[in-house]
């Protein structure tokens, strides 16, 4: 008797790719190194624009906080720099922009309240004591 060869198809051995492996492949394709991708905590996901600058609509933000087109993967150091600034100053960071937006909104609300409030001081002020000039009368 001749020995039968066992034929194995590759489709029989193929397993679905796990989501973790797909994510790692996508991050490597996006320009991250294999070391960054495989080290836990080396890559953070950043909301762009920051949640503090988004208006709240109902129970979520606008755009929604989990919208994939507004989430950017960044290296941990780059994410910290974008969020908190570069060392000595926080200029042009997310924290600075959020605080500035809140400060301007508060100042604008105070201005609006002053403008819309009835101004009693203007109505109660005394008449001017400066003499008025008479218009010259014509002789007939």
Q: What key attributes describe this structure?
A:
140 residues, single chain, two-stranded antiparallel ribbon, 6 helices, mainly alpha, 4 strands, 41% helix, 10% strand, rod-shaped, two-stranded antiparallel sheet
Description:
The chain is mainly alpha-helical and 140 residues long. Helix content is 41%, strand content 10%. The strands form 2 sheets. It has a two-stranded antiparallel ribbon with strand order 1-4. Strands 2-3 form a two-stranded antiparallel sheet. The radius of gyration is 34 Å and the shape is rod-shaped. The chain starts with 9 loop residues before the first helix and ends in a 16-residue tail after the last helix.
Nutshell version of this structure?
The chain has about 140 residues and is mainly α.
Global outline: rod-shaped
Which runs of at least 5 residues are low in confidence (pLDDT < 50)?
none
- Roughly how many Å apart are the termini? 148 Å
Q: Percent of residues in beta strands? A: 5-15%
Roughly what is the average pLDDT, rounded to an integer? 86
> Could you give the count of β-strands?
4
Largest sheet: 2 strands, antiparallel
């Amino acid at each position: 008797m001749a020995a039968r060869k066992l034929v194995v198809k590759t489709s029989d051995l193929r397993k679905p790719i796990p989501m973790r492996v797909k994510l790692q492949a996508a991050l490597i394709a996006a320009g991250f190194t294999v070391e960054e991708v495989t080290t836990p905590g080396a890559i953070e996901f950043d909301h762009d624009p920051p949640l503090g600058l988004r208006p709240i609509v109902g129970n979520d933000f606008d755009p929604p906080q989990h919208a994939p087109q507004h989430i950017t993967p960044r290296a941990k150091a780059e994410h910290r720099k974008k969020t908190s600034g570069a060392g000595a100053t926080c200029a042009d960071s997310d924290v600075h922009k959020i605080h500035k937006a809140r400060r301007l909104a508060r100042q604008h609300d105070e201005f609006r309240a002053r403008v819309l409030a009835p101004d009693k001081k203007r109505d109660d002020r005394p008449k001017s004591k400066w003499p008025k000039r008479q218009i010259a009368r014509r002789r007939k």
